[in-house]
Request: fold
Amino acid sequence: MMSVFKYFSPGCTLFGFGCIQGIRDEIRYRNLKKAFVVTDHKLRETEIVKKVTAVLASEGTAYCLFSEFKPNPTTTNINCGAKEFVDNHCDFLISVGGGSAHDCAKAISVVTAGGGKIEDYRGSDKSKCTYPLIAVTTTAGTGSECTLNYVVVDEKTKEKYGNGDRNVLPVLSVDDIELMMDMPASLTAGTGMDALTHAVEAYCSEDGALITSELAAAAVRLIFQYLENATLRPDQESREGMSVAQFLAGLAFGNAGCGLIHSMSHQLSAVYDLPHGLCNAVLMPVASRLNMKDQRAVERYALLGRSVFPLECGEKEAGQQAEYLIDRIEALSLTVGTKKSLTELGVREEDIPLLAEKTLHDASLRHNIYKPDKTEIEAAFRSLM
Reply:
């Protein structure tokens, strides 16, 4: 008999080319008056954001733009954003971009509705209420538009941590392929490998269920089918395939949790302000092989390998099936250009003990089947230098 499993997802999701126009219905339904549009500096002056603000203008909906946040949003960024939201008398948020914009908007919504500072809301379900959030995704990777999770960097401690709060689930998630068509190859690759990490870790999570495993396996199949083309030979089909893949992966990890890869990756982002997806791509093979010290993890990797590559894995032993999956992940990373050393990314050897120590205290590690010690984590980091 299936045990009780709690599953969260956005209120509504729009898919398809040009579906951004559908946010009109949500604005009318909720009688929303003024939007706080959260988007990064690079997107702010692009046609992407102009398409969103044009929809607002056509509805007579006022808005103000907020772009004062880093790729890994900090406590200061969030608290300043919350003040601007209140000062501008907004009543809902629209995040336009990838995970950084969505996470920042979620955190701002928590603070504006509940008062105080974002530091007061560390943990799970700490808010009493939030303002409505419409999440418009322009990358195919983070899955943040469909989860209750958001990540914050504490500038004082150089710590990156995740909060989970059901109140921050977007009332509307918008996955408009038109907004993703011009993504550069490096961003496509990094966010795509981020989605792959979400799916693999959700599949192997101690806290998953049949529904998250099936979502994750479907996401992995789609990513192997479409990421190479989306990166090197982009067209509408590959963009659509990756859009669906990252959404399924988001639903999977948003309900099952991540693991060691994210626990290690969070530290690299916090200390060096590196792109999250790229860090995941670099870490995934070595962290996955470390996990294989536990036979239960070997069986999960093997099962996923058989699901995604049934012909190639059919006659192999479980350990070989697991290793084949990881080899294919590593090969895909090489093909799309995300296979790099930590030295190339600017990581310093002397920082590794601190990175390993912080990894041990990262919340994502609790979902990991294998519980590595500090020495093992340090060795994993060093093997990538």
